[in-house]
Specification:
The protein is an alpha/beta fold. It contains 11 helices and 8 strands. The longest helix has 21 residues.
């Protein structure tokens, strides 16, 4: 399937982009009203709506669920606490299956409380994924490891590069891939090489936004596409050249955009996406 250059067939909006303004029900209706039929769902919004109700609504609205956010956060100071995160991720697998999500996005976890041992943290992540994967495979839900920018290594994820994610995929085998988020990987000198390495089978998602200069807040100051320094069209070409044919998913955590009317935010997402596609 060739990617479109003039329409919205492969545009998805991650609920985080309008998380403050809209419930899941409102987001489904709001995205659909603007001709967008891709959505990535967050678990708290899903729980608020109800899994069964949400599933019916998504089907009736002809929405493709490009991902469920999120599982993971596997690192912890005790085996009991680590098992809690594993169990929660298994529940997330069930939810992803119930809404027919294309993948379950994994934010792996940073350093355990009180720890400075990042090697141990990565070992805990691997051990947890080995426990989750058989269940995910049985449910036919791909696990999408999302490498996060190194600024989040201590508290959110110590899987920080495409190379690390690819190495994990090599180790774990079938049923696991990568969510490529330009915000987290744009800076990586090995990016093109590692996207090629991931290829069609491993790239499970492509998330877009922009990097503001200067960034005013590390978590909640992502920029709208075109308002920052990321070569989004260039990275888009990399994933397409690697064989990815799926959605481009707008994921913007931003106090600025959360203070705007949701309909205007989505409209701007559409405009900037189409601009990006014209450059691709």
């Amino acid at each position: 399937m060739n990617h479109p250059t003039t329409d919205l067939d492969l545009l998805s909006i991650n609920q985080a982009t309008t998380k403050i303004q809209w419930t899941l029900k409102e987001a489904i209706n709001g995205y659909q009203a603007q001709g967008i039929h891709g959505i990535s769902v967050w678990r708290d919004k899903l729980a608020e709506y109800g899994v069964e109700q949400a599933s019916h609504h998504l089907i009736n609205a002809n929405m493709t669920v490009t991902g469920l956010c999120r599982g993971g956060m596997f690192t912890a100071s005790t085996p009991k606490l680590r098992q809690v995160s594993i169990d929660e991720t298994l529940t997330a697998v069930d939810e992803a299956a119930a809404i027919n999500a294309q993948c379950l996005v994994i934010v792996a976890g940073g350093l355990a409380d009180g720890s400075k041992n990042i090697v141990q943290a990565r070992e805990q992540i691997t051990e947890a994924l080995l426990k989750v994967l058989p269940y995910a495979r049985s449910a036919n839900i791909p696990i999408a490891i999302e490498p996060l920018h190194p600024m989040y290594a201590a508290d959110r994820s110590c899987i920080n590069t495409m190379e690390q994610a690819n190495d994990l995929c090599d180790l774990l085998g079938r049923g696991v891939g990568i969510a490529v988020d330009v915000y987290h990987v744009w800076w990586d000198p090995k990016l093109e090489e590692q996207i090629k390495r991931a290829g069609k089978e491993r790239i499970l998602g492509f998330h877009i936004c922009d990097w503001r200069v200067p960034t005013r807040e590390l978590l909640l100051d992502r920029a709208m596409m075109g308002d920052g320094v990321i070569d989004i069209a260039g990275i888009h070409k990399m994933v397409r050249d690697a064989g990815y044919t799926g959605y481009s998913e707008v994921e913007i955590f931003s106090n600025e955009w959360w203070n705007k009317p949701a309909f205007d935010v989505v409209s701007t997402c559409k405009e900037r996406y189409l601009e990006m596609m014209r450059k691709a």
